[in-house]
From TrEMBL:
Keyword Coiled coil: yes
Keywords for this protein: Coiled coil, Phosphoprotein
Species lineage: Eukaryota, Metazoa, Chordata, Craniata, Vertebrata
PANTHER family in the record: FASCICULATION AND ELONGATION PROTEIN ZETA-2 (PTHR12394:SF11), ZYGIN (PTHR12394)
Region (Disordered): 182-214
The protein's name in its UniProt record: FEZ2 protein
Length: 248
Protein backbone atom coordinates (compact mmCIF):
# COMPACT_ATOMS: atom_id res chain seq x y z
CA UNK A 1 0.00 0.00 0.00
CA UNK A 2 2.80 2.42 0.91
CA UNK A 3 4.59 1.85 -2.35
CA UNK A 4 1.38 2.55 -4.30
CA UNK A 5 0.84 5.87 -2.46
CA UNK A 6 4.40 7.09 -2.94
CA UNK A 7 4.44 6.14 -6.62
CA UNK A 8 1.35 8.28 -7.26
CA UNK A 9 2.92 11.38 -5.55
CA UNK A 10 6.07 11.02 -7.61
CA UNK A 11 4.16 11.64 -10.85
CA UNK A 12 2.74 15.04 -9.69
CA UNK A 13 4.33 18.06 -11.47
CA UNK A 14 5.71 20.93 -9.31
CA UNK A 15 3.59 24.05 -8.89
CA UNK A 16 4.53 27.03 -11.12
CA UNK A 17 4.34 30.02 -8.77
CA UNK A 18 4.32 32.69 -11.51
CA UNK A 19 1.31 31.18 -13.29
CA UNK A 20 -0.58 30.24 -10.14
CA UNK A 21 -3.86 31.82 -9.03
CA UNK A 22 -2.33 32.83 -5.70
CA UNK A 23 0.38 34.84 -7.50
CA UNK A 24 -2.24 36.55 -9.64
CA UNK A 25 -4.10 37.69 -6.50
CA UNK A 26 -0.90 38.66 -4.69
CA UNK A 27 0.45 41.14 -7.27
CA UNK A 28 -2.42 43.68 -7.09
CA UNK A 29 -2.08 43.88 -3.32
CA UNK A 30 1.59 44.87 -3.61
CA UNK A 31 0.70 47.82 -5.90
CA UNK A 32 3.98 47.62 -7.76
CA UNK A 33 4.71 50.01 -10.63
CA UNK A 34 7.69 49.83 -12.88
CA UNK A 35 9.88 52.92 -12.59
CA UNK A 36 12.32 53.87 -15.27
CA UNK A 37 15.93 54.36 -14.38
CA UNK A 38 16.82 58.03 -14.12
CA UNK A 39 19.66 58.52 -16.53
CA UNK A 40 20.08 62.21 -15.69
CA UNK A 41 22.13 61.67 -12.57
CA UNK A 42 24.34 64.58 -11.55
CA UNK A 43 27.66 62.87 -11.10
CA UNK A 44 30.48 65.34 -10.54
CA UNK A 45 33.78 63.60 -11.15
CA UNK A 46 35.77 66.46 -9.64
CA UNK A 47 34.21 65.77 -6.24
CA UNK A 48 35.20 62.12 -6.54
CA UNK A 49 38.78 63.09 -7.38
CA UNK A 50 38.94 65.50 -4.46
CA UNK A 51 37.53 62.88 -2.10
CA UNK A 52 40.01 60.31 -3.41
CA UNK A 53 42.91 62.70 -2.75
CA UNK A 54 41.69 63.41 0.77
CA UNK A 55 41.39 59.69 1.53
CA UNK A 56 44.76 58.81 0.03
CA UNK A 57 46.25 57.41 3.22
CA UNK A 58 49.46 56.37 1.49
CA UNK A 59 50.44 59.94 0.60
CA UNK A 60 49.42 61.15 4.07
CA UNK A 61 51.59 58.56 5.81
CA UNK A 62 54.54 59.18 3.49
CA UNK A 63 54.37 62.92 4.09
CA UNK A 64 54.40 62.32 7.86
CA UNK A 65 57.38 59.96 7.66
CA UNK A 66 59.59 62.42 5.79
CA UNK A 67 62.29 63.68 8.10
CA UNK A 68 63.02 67.36 8.61
CA UNK A 69 65.81 68.41 6.23
CA UNK A 70 69.10 69.61 7.64
CA UNK A 71 70.10 73.21 7.06
CA UNK A 72 73.58 74.42 6.27
CA UNK A 73 74.99 77.58 7.77
CA UNK A 74 74.61 79.37 4.42
CA UNK A 75 70.93 78.46 4.23
CA UNK A 76 70.33 79.68 7.77
CA UNK A 77 72.06 82.99 7.05
CA UNK A 78 70.06 83.47 3.84
CA UNK A 79 66.81 82.73 5.65
CA UNK A 80 67.66 85.19 8.43
CA UNK A 81 68.50 87.87 5.88
CA UNK A 82 65.12 87.32 4.21
CA UNK A 83 63.39 87.57 7.59
CA UNK A 84 65.21 90.80 8.40
CA UNK A 85 64.28 92.26 5.01
CA UNK A 86 60.65 91.25 5.42
CA UNK A 87 60.44 92.55 9.01
CA UNK A 88 58.50 95.84 9.17
CA UNK A 89 60.32 99.06 9.91
CA UNK A 90 59.52 100.42 13.41
CA UNK A 91 59.14 103.87 11.91
CA UNK A 92 56.50 102.54 9.51
CA UNK A 93 54.61 100.92 12.39
CA UNK A 94 53.93 104.31 13.89
CA UNK A 95 50.26 104.91 13.32
CA UNK A 96 48.94 108.29 12.16
CA UNK A 97 47.01 108.67 15.39
CA UNK A 98 50.19 108.32 17.43
CA UNK A 99 52.08 110.82 15.29
CA UNK A 100 49.16 113.24 15.48
CA UNK A 101 49.09 112.86 19.22
CA UNK A 102 52.81 113.57 19.47
CA UNK A 103 52.44 116.68 17.34
CA UNK A 104 49.54 117.89 19.49
CA UNK A 105 51.55 117.31 22.66
CA UNK A 106 54.53 119.21 21.26
CA UNK A 107 52.27 122.11 20.28
CA UNK A 108 50.78 122.21 23.76
CA UNK A 109 54.25 122.24 25.29
CA UNK A 110 55.28 125.15 23.10
CA UNK A 111 52.08 126.99 24.03
CA UNK A 112 52.75 126.47 27.73
CA UNK A 113 56.32 127.72 27.33
CA UNK A 114 55.19 130.87 25.55
CA UNK A 115 52.39 131.49 28.02
CA UNK A 116 54.68 131.04 31.03
CA UNK A 117 57.05 133.73 29.77
CA UNK A 118 54.24 136.15 28.93
CA UNK A 119 53.43 138.77 31.58
CA UNK A 120 49.82 139.04 30.45
CA UNK A 121 49.32 135.38 31.24
CA UNK A 122 50.55 135.92 34.80
CA UNK A 123 48.18 138.85 35.24
CA UNK A 124 45.30 136.81 33.89
CA UNK A 125 46.10 133.98 36.32
CA UNK A 126 46.15 136.42 39.22
CA UNK A 127 42.64 137.58 38.34
CA UNK A 128 41.24 134.03 38.25
CA UNK A 129 38.90 132.80 40.95
CA UNK A 130 39.55 129.78 43.17
CA UNK A 131 37.30 127.52 41.07
CA UNK A 132 39.01 128.59 37.86
CA UNK A 133 42.43 128.03 39.42
CA UNK A 134 41.40 124.53 40.51
CA UNK A 135 40.16 123.77 37.00
CA UNK A 136 43.42 125.05 35.51
CA UNK A 137 45.37 122.94 38.00
CA UNK A 138 43.44 119.80 36.97
CA UNK A 139 44.17 120.52 33.30
CA UNK A 140 47.88 120.94 34.02
CA UNK A 141 47.99 117.71 36.08
CA UNK A 142 46.19 115.83 33.30
CA UNK A 143 48.65 117.19 30.73
CA UNK A 144 51.61 116.21 32.93
CA UNK A 145 50.18 112.68 33.30
CA UNK A 146 49.72 112.33 29.53
CA UNK A 147 53.24 113.61 28.85
CA UNK A 148 54.69 111.21 31.43
CA UNK A 149 52.88 108.19 29.96
CA UNK A 150 53.98 109.12 26.45
CA UNK A 151 57.56 109.58 27.64
CA UNK A 152 57.59 106.17 29.35
CA UNK A 153 56.24 104.49 26.21
CA UNK A 154 58.82 106.14 23.97
CA UNK A 155 61.68 105.24 26.34
CA UNK A 156 60.49 101.62 26.52
CA UNK A 157 60.28 101.48 22.72
CA UNK A 158 63.79 102.91 22.42
CA UNK A 159 65.22 100.36 24.89
CA UNK A 160 63.43 97.53 23.08
CA UNK A 161 64.81 98.60 19.70
CA UNK A 162 68.34 98.93 21.09
CA UNK A 163 68.17 95.47 22.68
CA UNK A 164 66.77 93.96 19.48
CA UNK A 165 69.58 95.53 17.45
CA UNK A 166 72.19 94.22 19.89
CA UNK A 167 70.72 90.70 19.81
CA UNK A 168 70.61 90.67 16.01
CA UNK A 169 74.24 91.80 15.76
CA UNK A 170 75.34 89.12 18.23
CA UNK A 171 73.31 86.48 16.41
CA UNK A 172 74.78 87.39 13.03
CA UNK A 173 78.32 87.41 14.43
CA UNK A 174 77.81 83.89 15.85
CA UNK A 175 76.50 82.65 12.50
CA UNK A 176 79.46 84.18 10.67
CA UNK A 177 81.76 82.43 13.14
CA UNK A 178 80.03 79.12 12.41
CA UNK A 179 80.42 79.71 8.68
CA UNK A 180 84.13 80.48 9.08
CA UNK A 181 84.67 77.33 11.11
CA UNK A 182 82.87 75.32 8.46
CA UNK A 183 85.09 76.80 5.75
CA UNK A 184 88.23 76.07 7.80
CA UNK A 185 87.07 72.51 8.36
CA UNK A 186 86.56 71.97 4.62
CA UNK A 187 90.02 73.33 3.85
CA UNK A 188 91.58 71.10 6.52
CA UNK A 189 89.78 68.06 5.14
CA UNK A 190 91.03 68.81 1.62
CA UNK A 191 94.61 69.14 2.86
CA UNK A 192 94.37 65.81 4.70
CA UNK A 193 93.10 64.10 1.55
CA UNK A 194 96.00 65.48 -0.47
CA UNK A 195 98.55 64.37 2.15
CA UNK A 196 97.16 60.83 2.28
CA UNK A 197 97.23 60.56 -1.56
CA UNK A 198 93.54 59.63 -1.74
CA UNK A 199 93.88 56.14 -0.20
CA UNK A 200 90.44 54.40 -0.13
CA UNK A 201 90.92 53.02 3.37
CA UNK A 202 92.23 56.28 4.72
CA UNK A 203 89.40 58.07 2.97
CA UNK A 204 86.86 55.79 4.67
CA UNK A 205 88.47 56.35 8.07
CA UNK A 206 88.56 60.07 7.48
CA UNK A 207 84.91 60.14 6.50
CA UNK A 208 84.00 58.04 9.51
CA UNK A 209 85.80 60.39 11.92
CA UNK A 210 85.10 63.65 10.10
CA UNK A 211 82.03 65.51 11.40
CA UNK A 212 79.46 66.39 8.78
CA UNK A 213 79.71 69.67 7.00
CA UNK A 214 75.94 70.10 7.30
CA UNK A 215 74.63 71.44 10.58
CA UNK A 216 71.39 70.41 12.20
CA UNK A 217 69.14 73.03 13.76
CA UNK A 218 69.94 71.64 17.21
CA UNK A 219 73.70 72.12 16.71
CA UNK A 220 73.31 75.67 15.42
CA UNK A 221 70.94 76.44 18.31
CA UNK A 222 73.57 75.27 20.84
CA UNK A 223 76.27 77.40 19.21
CA UNK A 224 74.02 80.47 19.22
CA UNK A 225 73.06 79.95 22.87
CA UNK A 226 76.74 79.72 23.80
CA UNK A 227 77.31 83.00 21.96
CA UNK A 228 74.44 84.61 23.88
CA UNK A 229 75.86 83.39 27.18
CA UNK A 230 79.22 84.89 26.30
CA UNK A 231 77.64 88.21 25.28
CA UNK A 232 74.79 88.70 27.77
CA UNK A 233 75.72 86.29 30.56
CA UNK A 234 73.58 83.42 31.89
CA UNK A 235 69.93 84.41 31.97
CA UNK A 236 66.73 82.43 32.18
CA UNK A 237 65.23 84.11 29.13
CA UNK A 238 67.96 83.28 26.59
CA UNK A 239 66.05 80.32 25.13
CA UNK A 240 62.96 82.47 24.75
CA UNK A 241 64.95 85.07 22.81
CA UNK A 242 66.34 82.31 20.58
CA UNK A 243 62.87 80.96 19.91
CA UNK A 244 61.71 84.46 19.01
CA UNK A 245 64.52 84.89 16.49
CA UNK A 246 64.27 81.41 14.93
CA UNK A 247 60.62 80.65 14.12
CA UNK A 248 61.37 77.67 11.83
Amino acid sequence: IWNALTDNYGNVMPVDWKSSHTRALHLPTLNLSEKGVNDNLNLDLSDDEELREQLDMHSIIVSCINEEPLFTAEQVIEEIEEMMQESPDPEDDETPTQSDRLSILSQEIQTLKRSSTNNSYEERVKRLSVAELNELLEEIETAIKDYSEELVQQLALRDELEFEKEVKNSFISVLIEVQNKQREHKETAKKKKKLKNGSPQNGKQERSHMPGTRFSMEGISNVIQNGFRHTFGNSSGEKQVLGYLLPF
